[in-house]
Amino acid sequence: MPLKSKIAIIDLSNNKITQEPIPERMRRHYLGGRGIGAHLIYNHVEPKTDPLGPGNALVVSAGFLTGTVAPAAARTHIGCKSPLTNGFGSSNVGGFFGPELKFAGFEHLVIKGASEKPVYLWVHDGEIEIRDATHLWGKDTFETPQIIQEELDDEEIKVACIGLAGENLVKLANFRTGPKNSAGRTGTGCIAGSKRLKAIAVRGHQDLKLAYPKEALQYAKQAVDQIMSTKVAKAMSVDGTSFIWNVTNTIGLLEFYNGQVNKFKDWQKLTIEAFDEKYKAGMAGCFNCTVHCRHQFRIKDGPWAGTFGEGPEYNTQTALGSFGADNWETLLVGWHLANKYGIDTTGWSNDVRGVMELYQRGIIDKEVTGGLDLSWENANQIIPILLEQTAKKEGIGAIIGQGSLGIIKEFSKYSRDVEYYILHVKGLGKLGNVDRAQPSFALGIATSTRGADHLRSRPALDHYHLPEEVLRKLYGGPVSSDFRSYEGKARMVRWHELTYAVVDCLGTCKFQTVFFSPNLPAYKEWRKYLRYITGLEFTEEELFDIGERVYTLERMFNYREAGFTRKDDRVPERCIKEPLKYGLPAIRGAHIDREKFEKLLDEYYELHGWDKENGLPLPETLKRLELDKEPSHLITESQSA
Amino acid sequence: MRKQERDNILRCLNCSERMEIPLKAKQFTCPKCKMEYYIGWRDGQAKILGSVDKEGVEDAAKE
Predict the structure, then answer these.
(1) Would you state the pLDDT for residue B3?
(2) From CA A188, how far away is CA A450, in angstroms rounded?
């Protein structure tokens, strides 16, 4: 049963592998997935270690419900100390890898140390082997799984792997688990590369026995009916997450040309309807998902004819569509290459947009770019070139691959304005969403425990014109239903942060939760999943507390490793200084008001039980969450801040 | 019938007014703020494709 899944500690420096059960206290405090993952990262990463050194730990965590009958229980969390931020590295990925890890008997893999030669892990039915991967080094993320499946003679083996970017210690490198699935953010692939860990192959035949099989199956069916009856599930089944793009672009909530423009002039060319006409090859789903939001595409003609892959999704459209490229093929080729090399499209696109604006403003020129014309009009041509250069650490790609902070460090010698144009929070580049018209989004990216990020809290329910009494009931206090308002948005952001932390602990897909609609599963449903599947009883309050414990521990990791405090909970200055010029009349002129934002931060810290001066947990908060019992120095560090 | 009605209802992205879209309509104007939208259909469900706000898009094109 799910409760019997284990933690494996794998030290690549000395080839030592140990297995441990998951203690009940750890389970009740952190559930699983990202929660237990955060606990393991906190305790296994050597304090103040070099992210690329052997003291870092890469922690692969399936969710508590991953692999079970709970709808879309497909998620895996991959974490470490991030090479981009020096803080909490964290990325969540779907597909089939996590369920297979559970079937193999494991929920968490803690990978420490570093191997002298390339290796991969072979995890199967309760056993783990460290195998030579010299022959895989240099292979891309499409070839690697195939080679492993062939040599182990089992095409059902699921493989997570890095590409050329990870091998070359590109900080924007990701860890990929399938055709569309990437643990993209915070440089997890770079950490795998630093450990010479090319891949993790998993295969299992162990049964995840359910505590109450009949009730679990009945309830799973009921939950699927609930999910599929919503408008949003229907929209995702046809248009994928790209159904959002038309709406956000119409309002003027997408950033183009590095946030200089917030509506795309040739929008008809980048809609999902335009994609469908020429490239759509089908839809696919992750483990135990009935929505199937994963597009499949095929390029039929031209130099890239025959290219097949999964995607795009909203993220791809928004990230790779932000340079002014005016055709889907550029986006799909960019997506294909980023996947092949193992590069995070969100972070990479953000950083390239910034570099292109430096070029636009004459801060860097062709001498710096190695002769490349980085003007926006040239976007269709340069995206593939820059992706290859990034993966191979060649030319200007070697600088782009070091992420926002690396670019700022390298180019600040040319102008003091460089930091203004490289948009990031805590060193992590942001998705091309317009945050400056939405105080809740702005607060969310400013305070996210992994740096600028739209998935840590993405508080979008104030876009749905819901009655304010619905929001009040959900959030436990007044929240304005106007997305432009600051009222109640601290409460809203905190609630989503903690709730999504719970989702990531469970291992279900965020898109099938309150993320998109108040009619999708949340605490009431999760309690039932847990009871019927695992036999464990949790109250809604206990689950919410787990979310708070996980978020607070991540916050403390950030303070311990990177010294992040209130001063780092910022939005890019452009969000404050440059009002929106385009879009619907409702948002033109919008920008983040510095004074109101500071007040929002005060409210946010108060709700969290963090001090307003530093944004660090108060001793009584740590005690309430029982984080004072962590085998660490949480309270001491907090009090001395 | 009720479900079909629901699928035809959209909210104006500018002023939040409820908009009842005639079946198969390709454009629709918000009765309150007069914002004009291009409409698409997804398995009988109305969706906004874009806006006909020449001003906003044309301005952006000048950048």
Answers:
(1) 47
(2) 12
The CA distance from A76 to A287, in Å, is 11
Q: Reduced to 3 states, what is the DSSP secondary structure of residue A338? A: helix
Does A277 contact B at CB distance below 8 Å?
no
The answer to whether the beta carbons of residues A35 and A247 sit under 8 Å apart is no
C-beta separation of A247 from A309 below 8 A = no
Contacts of A258 in chain B (CB under 8 A): none
At A639 the pLDDT is 44
Confidence of residue B1 (pLDDT cuts 50, 70, 90): very low
Asked if A271 lies within 8 A of B59 by C-beta distance, the reply is no
Q: Which residue in A262, A275, A280, A582 has the most chain B C-beta atoms within 10 A of its own C-beta, making it the best mutation to test that interface? A: A582
Query: Hey, is the C-beta of B26 within 8 angstroms of any chain A C-beta?
Result: no
List the single residue in B43, B45, B51 with the smallest CB-CB distance to A250. Answer: B51
Q: Residue A515 burial by CB count (10 A; 0-12/13-18/19+): exposed, middle or buried?
A: buried
Minimal-distance CA residue of chain A relative to B53: A584
- A542-546, long-range: CB < 8 A, 24+ apart: A542/A28, A543/A31, A543/A502, A544/A498, A544/A499, A544/A502, A545/A625, A546/A29, A546/A30, A546/A31, A546/A35, A546/A501, A546/A502, A546/A505
Partner residue opposite A584 with nearest CB, options B45, B51, B63: B51
Nearest to B49 among A234, A260, A273 (CB): A273
Take residue A201 and report the two structure tokens written for it.
Answer: 């192959």
pLDDT of residue A504: 98
Sheet holding B36-42, edge to edge: B27-29, B36-42, B45-51
pLDDT tens for each residue of A135-158: 999 999 999 999 999 999 999 999
Residue A4 has pLDDT above 90, yes or no: no
Interface of A with B in 307-326 (CB under 8 A): none
Question: ipTM score here?
Answer: 0.92
Q: What is the 3-state secondary structure (H, E, C) of A498-557?
A: HHHHHHHHHCCCHHHCCCCCCCCCCHHHHHHHHHHHHCCCCCHHHHHHHHHHHHHHHHHH
Please provide the average confidence, as pLDDT, over all residues in chain A. Answer: 95
Number of residues that make up chain B: 63
Question: Chain A: nearest CA to B56, how far in angstroms?
Answer: 5
Beta bridge partners of A124: A127, A203
Cβ contact (<8 Å) for B13 and A235?
Answer: no
- Identify the pLDDT of residue A637: 47
The answer to whether residue A3 scores a pLDDT higher than 80 is no
Structure tokens at A583: 């879009």
Residue contact B60–A239, C-beta within 8 A: no
Residues of A with Cβ-Cβ distance to B50 under 8 angstroms: 246, 249-250, 267-268, 271
Taking a contact as any Cβ pair under 8 Å apart, which residues of chain A between 429 and 468 contact chain B? 465
Among A239, A265, A581, select the one facing B61 at the smallest CB separation: A265
**String of DSSP letters for A71-103:** TT---EEEEEE-TTTSSEEEEEE-SSHHHHHHH
Which pTM value belongs to this model? 0.96
Q: Which tokens in the block code for residue A208? A: 């995840």
CB A504 within 8 A of CB A35: yes
Provide the sign of the torsion angle of the four alpha carbons A143, A145, A148, A154, taken in this order: negative
